[in-house]
Design a protein that fits this description.
By secondary structure, the protein is an alpha+beta fold. The chain has 8 helices and 11 strands. The chain starts with 17 loop residues before the first strand and ends with a helix.
Length: 341
């Protein structure tokens, strides 16, 4: 995958296809390990890349199932605006682990304008220094920074910790004027995705603790209970979608039925002579009123007189014609009709 560009200069001045996530080799990096600043060995090899990719795929599976938020690359390891949405890890012999993703407008502007020069990863590390994968809590995969943990890393780079078994979570060395080193942060078990304070007072999590609150779980609920509640919520969401779809279908059928009934009502008015067939506006008005309220339509249009067929020919009225027709006759016609009767 050497064709993946990782520098602005390689991409014609534009944001590159990917980021140099970890340089190949054995490194001594200055970072925070389980929340405490230290310098430790990190082994970056092809196996490390495979573990990172495997974890990223697992994360995206949960995202697509609606069980967690999407992973992201932040700025300066601070929860907030996203620079990139990570998609996959590649191993490039001679270079190391490359992270490919989709740039946001803010991230693209930051690297193309030279505001940020490196990618700083967040990852899990074994006691022997091997990279074991991504953080499975929180959403941060890394951040754009200007003070990378890896001193031998390509320009264009480790921050929060949650221990898993005997592994450490490793994050970068922070620039003091941007994000102070957190030797005084909360215990590693409480580290999370969002920093409420930087360099003083510790970090308040927004992952498990907030999920427990949102899901109505007790404070001592474990990860299995949280995942079960999320799956239940996801199932309820799917049922709701099905109900909403069925309701939409019913509403559509009801509307079609009303339209058909309104058309029949208007046709009846035309046949009775209440509305002239050429009077399109009145026909439409009858249909619209019937759609809104059939009862109101019956009252309004039922009060209009019907135009009965005339029984008279050339001014003469048939003996069975009603009184209304007789009232319209001339006096002579009336007398003639009476005489003939």
């Amino acid at each position: 995958m050497s064709e993946v560009t990782t520098k602005v200069s390689e991409a014609g001045g534009h944001a590159p296809d990917g980021l140099m996530y970890m340089p190949e080799g054995v490194h001594e990096i200055s970072a925070t390990f389980n929340g405490k600043a230290a310098t430790k060995k990190v082994v970056v090899d092809e196996a490390a890349c495979a573990r990172l990719q495997s974890d990223l795929e697992r994360i995206w599976e949960k995202v697509e199932a609606g069980l967690r938020a999407r992973p992201c690359v932040y700025f300066n390891h601070v929860s907030g605006p996203v620079a990139m949405v990570p998609k996959r890890f590649h191993w490039v012999p001679g270079k190391g682990v490359v992270l490919e993703g989709e740039w946001t407008a803010a991230g693209r502007e930051a690297v193309e304008g030279g505001s940020y020069a490196y990618c700083s990863p967040c990852f899990r590390r074994s006691e022997s220094g091997r990279v074991m994968g991504l953080l499975m809590q929180g959403v941060e995969v890394g951040s754009l920074v200007n003070d990378p943990a890896f001193e031998r890393i390509e320009c264009i780079a480790a921050a929060r910790c949650v221990p898993e078994d005997e592994e450490e979570v490793c994050c970068a060395r922070f620039a003091p004027d941007v994000y102070p080193p957190r030797g005084d942060v909360a215990p590693a078990g409480n580290c999370g995705d969002n920093a409420d304070t930087a360099g003083g007072g510790g970090i308040k999590t927004m992952d498990e603790n907030k999920l427990k609150t949102l899901l109505g779980l007790p404070a001592d609920a474990d990860s299995a209970a949280i995942e079960a509640a999320l799956q239940k919520a996801a199932g309820a969401g799917k049922k709701l979608e099905a109900v909403e779809a069925e309701l939409a279908t019913m509403k559509k059928k009801e509307h079609e039925h009303k339209e058909k009934a309104a058309g029949a009502f208007a046709d009846g008015l035309v046949k009775k002579g209440v509305i002239a067939p050429q009077d399109k506006e009145k026909v439409a008005a009858a249909k619209n009123l019937y759609m809104q309220s059939p009862a109101d339509a019956e009252v309004v249009f039922g009060a209009l007189p019907e135009k009965k067929e005339e029984a008279a020919v050339a001014g003469k009225v048939h003996p069975e014609a009603d009184g209304a027709a007789r009232a319209d006759m001339s006096v002579m016609d009336h007398l003639m009709a009476e005489f003939e009767a």
